[in-house]
Sequence to fold (92 residues):
Amino acid sequence: MYLKLNSLGYSARPTLDNYSCKEIAQVLQLNLSTVCRWVKRGWLEATRRSARHYQIRRWHLQQFFENPPQSIKKRIDALDVEAINYLLGKKA
Fold:
C-alpha cells in the first residue's frame, strides 16, 4: 500500500501535514504545472518522492504563503483565502 501511494505522489502518513503538487493545485484551482514550477524554482520547498512527484510539508507551504516571491505576490494574494486556510489546517 505504501509503495502504491508513494508512486502516485501521496503521503502514506496518517497525518495530513504533507501534500502532493496535484493536491495543492486542485485545492487552489491552479494548473499542476504552476505548483511544480514553484517547487522547481525553489520558491516552495519540497521533497522528491519519485522522478515526477514531490511532497510538500504544511509548514513549507505556510512559509511560502507568508513570504511569496515578489514576482508572484499579486497572484498569491488573489488566491482563495479559505482554500489556503484549508491546506494550512487553519479554522475559518
Summary: Residues 2-88 form one domain.
